[in-house]
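Hi there,

I know you've been waiting on this one. I reran it after we fixed the sequence typo, so this is the corrected version. Both the input and the resulting structure follow.
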Amino acid sequence: MSNLIPWVVAFYLVFGGVWAAKLLRQGQSWSTAAASLVLWPLFLGVEGAAEGGPNTGRIHAAFIALESTLADPAARGVVEPAELEALRRSLLSVDARLGMVERLLSDPAVAGAGETTVKRLKDARETTLAELDAALGELVQLRVQLGLVALAGDSTPVRGRLAALGARVRALDELSRITGSAGV
């Protein structure tokens, strides 16, 4: 059995390398490709991962860390898995639109399309990226707050923080949909 372990690890990493190369060929960022080297099983289940955004790997990594914290016996039952999955889908949706904007901005024809419009698109991208970064930071804060739940036993602040984060991300997701459909 111990002879099998190196082969399984090698297969896992080789498949991750193939997946990472595929993502790079499809225009994904190096950070997303690097994350997929180890996290490729998560990418398989994500519909449209190939068309995802530049932060797909960061989003998945943040949720893996949060789910690991929630798996601890002291934190079990505090957060519903459906809440986390809805939050993950919203963040991935926002990131997919960021990916589309990145691909547009890298097109030389778009770069010369008109300074005002391109500047508005870049500004909207920066605002959306800042909000996405803030949401990922909130996920880290949520993990810290779960540590307080383990000590104090009161899960109300965690539930409140998660509800506020969910509302914030849903609003960002909706706003980026409206902004995108309105032509910025």
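Quick highlight: DSSP finds seven helices and no strands in the chain.

Best,
R. S.
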